[in-house]
Design brief:
The complex is a heterotrimer.
Chain A: E1 7-10, H1 14-24, E2 28-31, H2 37-42, E3 50-53, E4 63-66, E5 69-73, H3 78-83, H4 85-90, H5 92-97, H6 104-107, H7 112-118, H8 124-131, E6 135-140, E7 143-148, H9 149-152, E8 153-155, E9 158-159, E10 166-173, E11 179-186, E12 196-205, E13 208-217, E14 224-225, H10 227-233, H11 240-253, H12 264-282
Parallel strand pairs in A: 1-3, 2-3
Antiparallel strand pairs in A: 4-5, 5-10, 6-7, 6-10, 8-9, 11-12, 12-13, 13-14
Chain B: E1 2-9, H1 13-21, H2 23-29, E2 33-38, E3 43-52, E4 55-69, E5 73-81, E6 87-99, E7 102-114, H3 115-121, H4 123-143, E8 148-151, E9 155-157
Antiparallel strand pairs in B: 1-7, 1-8, 1-9, 2-3, 3-4, 4-5, 5-6, 6-7
Helix pairs in contact in B: 2-4
Chain C: E1 5-11, E2 14-20, H1 26-33, E3 52-55, E4 58-61, E5 74-76, H2 78-84, H3 88-96, H4 106-119, H5 125-132, H6 143-158
Parallel strand pairs in C: 1-5
Antiparallel strand pairs in C: 1-2, 3-4, 3-5
Classes of the chains: A alpha+beta, B alpha+beta, C alpha+beta.
């Protein structure tokens, strides 16, 4: 069906965008890529009185290296991430994950910031941001604040972003030479919402795991780290026996939430399958 | 969809009972409540903005109380329509039990969601219903000046 | 509420201006206001791909893009790209392989295929299938569409022209 009527204003910069958001409040929606918002409006599952277009806000654009961090602007599209040399070099996990997001036409418009701000439990970028220890940069009427990814996603479709704030960018530590990753996603058809997914990152030192990050998505209300499995793996070398134990730990510790297509038991089973594949791939 | 749970609130039973029946307290406690009006001793009408992910659906509905035993328990029937988004209908039972540290509020709810939200929401609605219940009790306890002492896990069942 | 906005865009090589309601998406604007029936509406939710158009050189879901957002943009539909000859070899290959029956998905398929050929010219069958999985077809069963796209990819890789379809 067609969206209900709304007004439209385009912000010229970040200060104006934040001011407009404060001015119009609950009756407004921010539009960036619009790939989730416009579908929602077309179905009339939301009827805002005004859209605030932030696609001209330059402070939200671009991928750059800042010191020892990679900065990804909120407006960076999934396609830009997929084809960026900086991403390939400094956050290759994201390059591997990008083609799994929906389909090309959607990736051309959909944004990094949009995916994070919606916090869909089945989305790829929230889990990837956890796996890479990303820091979210947030602008509100009272200034800027930074929140680590693990404190950002707090409940179903709920992040710590307040109603008057805009996600500006994420900062990700540059991938080190001893860092490997694996991205796994199971979906019934390519481009579907994930049935289960895993964004994994490991740093090794002399054959032993130093840092382990296992961020599962589409298993619960929020992207979920298998912290017990991580702690178990850290300090050890990866071999078949360790993989089996890690899989058992992850299956035990994660309280899965069923979705429309898959039961809790299926999710629990599949997360173990993906963990096995990821650890096998990352094994030196 | 069924939602059952218990919350312990650090306030005496009579205060909790008054709070549950006070539209001003309810207005401040119900997540997304925009308007609320008591029509009679048994009937309350409200407009609530239901927010989940990108969805913003304004529900207009009414709550009808029955089997009212002051300071102890009551039943309620509710229904609401969310325009193009869908509609909801259900019933709930609330019991207040004096407990160490305050009042234990025990609730059991059965609801069905129809229309678009029902079709595409499915199990995600159950997860968000739990969140709404948790948010309600947090706000409610704050309104009463007390706290939530124990947050026990609400038991959720999805029956089609 | 319904304050119409003035927009200017480059559409199929021509500069145009219009006044439109913010809620009108690009495909409704193209079809209803400008009579360009190339892009079709299937689901209006971004799932089926029938509405695919090109904005600033990239394919997008026209139903998930507002006409007001096209202010200052370059828009190309299957009509314009056909006129330019950009889709010629794909169209010939589609004809030869029976890659269309009712034609509803075809404009979207052509635009999606064109972007694949431009950005991933070394694609194999599996990669072609993955790429066009965002465009639904109810008639052909997809094999003929993949065959047609593969023919163009291989021809281009060989530096050949795709043979035009003749009725002789």
């Amino acid at each position: 069906m067609k969206a209900a009527a709304f007004d439209y204003v385009k912000a010229k910069n970040l200060v104006e965008a934040v001011a407009l958001l404060s001015e119009y409040g609950e009756d407004s929606r921010l539009i960036a890529g619009g790939q989730t918002l416009l579908a929602t409006l077309n179905l009339r599952l939301s009827e805002p009185s005004i859209l605030i277009d932030i696609t001209a806000v330059s402070e939200l654009k671009g991928i750059s290296v800042q010191g020892n961090m990679l900065r990804i602007g909120a407006l960076v599209t999934h396609t830009e991430i997929e084809s960026s040399d900086l991403i390939a070099q400094h956050a290759p996990l994201l390059k591997e994950a990008a083609p799994h997001i929906a389909h090309r036409a959607i990736r051309n418009l959909g944004t990094w910031g949009g995916s994070l701000a919606y916090g869909d439990p089945a989305a790829e970028w929230p889990a990837c941001s956890l796996a890479l220890d990303a820091i979210m940069v947030i602008q509100g009427p009272n200034g800027v604040r930074k929140v680590s990814a693990k404190d950002f996603f707090i409940d179903l479709y709920t992040t710590t972003l307040q109603a008057d704030e805009i996600l500006v960018a994420s900062e990700i530590p540059l991938a080190s030479s001893n860092q490997v990753h694996s991205f796994q996603e199971l979906a019934r058809r390519h481009g579907d919402y994930a049935a289960v997914g895993l964004a994994a990152m490991i740093r090794t030192d002399k054959g032993k795991v130093q840092t382990c990050r296992l961020a599962f998505f589409s298993v619960a209300a929020i992207p979920t780290m298998a912290s017990k499995a991580q702690a178990f793996i850290e300090g050890k070398s990866i071999d078949a026996a360790l993989i089996q134990q890690a899989v058992n730990l992850a299956r035990e510790e994660i309280e899965t939430l069923a979705d429309i297509t898959n039961s809790q038991e299926t999710k629990t089973h599949l997360l173990g399958v993906l963990l096995e594949r990821a650890l096998t791939k990352m094994m030196p | 969809m069924e939602l059952n749970g218990e919350q312990l609130i650090a306030a005496p039973v009579s205060m909790v009972w008054l709070g549950l029946n006070d539209v001003t307290v309810l207005h401040a406690s119900i997540p997304g409540c925009e308007e609320i009006e008591r029509i009679s001793d048994e009937e309350v009408r409200a407009k609530v903005m239901f927010k989940i992910g990108p969805v913003r659906a304004r529900f207009a509905g009414k709550l009808i109380l029955s089997d009212i035993v002051p300071d102890v328990s009551c039943s309620m029937a509710f229904e609401g329509t969310g325009g193009a988004a869908g509609f909801a209908k259900g019933k709930a039972r609330v019991e207040l039990i004096r407990a160490e540290g305050g009042t234990l509020v025990r609730y059991s709810t059965e609801a069905s969601i129809g229309g678009k939200l029902g079709q595409i929401g499915g199990r995600l609605i159950s997860a968000s219903a739990k969140k709404i219940a948790d948010d309600f009790f947090l706000a409610f306890a704050k309104e009463l000046g007390g706290e939530l002492i124990i947050l026990s896990d609400a038991k959720l069942e999805d029956k089609k | 509420m319904n304050h119409k906005k003035q927009i200017n865009m480059m559409l199929n090589g021509k500069q145009i201006s219009a006044e439109i309601e913010p809620r009108r998406h690009l495909v409704d604007f193209l079809r209803e206001d400008l009579g360009l029936k190339g892009p079709h509406l299937g689901c209006e939710q971004g799932a089926c791909g029938a509405c695919t158009v090109r904005v600033n050189g990239q394919i997008v879901r026209g139903c998930l893009y507002l006409a007001v957002q096209a202010d200052g943009a370059t828009i190309e539909t299957v009509e314009g790209l056909t006129e330019q000859g950009v889709l010629n070899d794909l169209q010939e290959a589609f004809l030869r392989h029976n890659a269309l029956q009712c034609g509803f998905c075809t404009s979207g398929m052509l635009l999606a295929a064109a972007e694949l050929i431009e950005h991933q010219p070394k694609s194999n069958r599996e990669q072609v299938r993955e790429w066009i999985s965002g465009n639904y077809c109810r008639c052909t069963g997809y094999h003929s569409i993949v065959d047609a796209i593969m023919e163009v990819l291989e021809a281009r890789a060989d530096g050949r022209q795709v043979k035009p379809v003749t009725t002789a």
